[in-house]
Amino acid sequence: MSTSEIIARPVKSKADMNAFLALPSALFSDDPVWVPPLKMMLRDQLNPKKNPWFSHGEAQLFLAERNGAVLGRISAQVDRSHLEQHNDATGFFGFFDSVDEQSVADALFAAAGAWLKERGISRVRGPFSLNINEESGLLVDGFESAPRVAMTHALPYYQTLVEGAGFEKVRDLFAFLTPMDTALPYKHMKLLQRSIDRNPGLSFRHLDPKSYDADIRILVDLFNAAWAENWGFIPLTEADAKHMASEFKLILIPELVWFAFYEGEPAAMAVALPDLNEMIADLGGSLWPKGWMKLIWRVLTRRSWSSGTRVPLMGVAPRFKNKPLGSVLALMVMGAIRTESLKLNLPICEMSWVLEDNTQTRHSLETIGARVYKTYRVYEKSL
Questions:
Q1: Residues 230 and 341 in one domain
Q2: Tell me, what's the pLDDT at 1?
C-alpha cells in the first residue's frame, strides 16, 4: 500500500525486524529522557513462539519507507480475548513511531487498518503493545521525565500525527507520582490498626518464592475479579501473568508483592517493581557484550535504584467494593509496600495507570498525596 512516495509494507524478514526495533533510536536520539528498551525483550514480546499472548492474539508489524529509508513503524493486532469479552469488532494498533510527517503516519495507519478490515474488524483502538494489559496509551503530557518500567514514551508531535490521521480520544490514562515517606497509611496507622483489630480474620503477607505459581494464580484471580467492570478490560491469563513475571524476574522483589486475606480467602493484592528503565538507561537497548554485567551488578548491589518503584497491579476483591473494609485492605497492602520501599531506599512510587473516569481510585490516590504527572491517551477510529 502506498501514499505518494511513501510505502508501508509488512515486516517479513530478520532485516525488517531489526529495522523495526532500531527506528526509535534514531527518532529519540535528541530526547534526553528517552530510555532505549531492551531489544531482546522486545524480540521475545513479538515472537509467537515466546509470548503466550499469541495464543489468543494475532499481530502484523509494518514499516513505512521512502526510497528504502525507514521513516515509521506500527503494529496491527487482533486480540480474541477482547473480542470474546466485548463483542465489538475492535482491533488494536501499537508500536507507533514516525518522523514528523503526516503522509508517513497516514500510510502506516492505512496499512494497519486494511489488515484489520481483512479480519472482520470495523474499529481500531490504541496504542496498545500488545493489549490493554501491557503498554497502553500515547503520552500527551509529561514529556519532561523518563518513562518508568513497562510504560511508553513519545515525541510531542505524535499526538498531532495520530489525530491528523482521523483518530479521536476515547480515554485518558493517568500516571500518579506518590511520595512513600509521607503517604498513607503512615499518617493514619492508628486508625487503620484499629480497623484491623476489629477484624481478626484479616492477615497479610508478601509473595512466597516457594509458592510462586500459587501466588501468581492469586494475583491473576484478584486482578481479573477486581477490574472486570473496568473500561476495556481483558482478562489476564495465568500464562500471560507468568510471562510478565519471568520478564521482570531479575528485579522482582518478594517484599514488594503483598497479599491481604480475609478469613483465609484472598482479598487484595498489590505489586511494585523497581524501575528497570533507570537501570538500563545507558545500555542503548542491548545487553551485549557488557550490558549483562552492568545490569546484574546494579541489581545485586541495588545501585541506580534512586527513583523508586512502579505499581502496575493492584486490586481488591469485589465483595469489599465500596465498603470501609475494602479501603483498609487497599491501604494495608500499599502500606506494606511503602514500608518495604523505604527500607530499600525507594522513596517515590509511580502508580499507573488509572482511568480518568475512575474517580474512586483517583480520590484514594490523591488522599495519600499522589499527583498526576503523566497523561496517556487512548484513541479510536472507525474503519
A1: yes
A2: 44
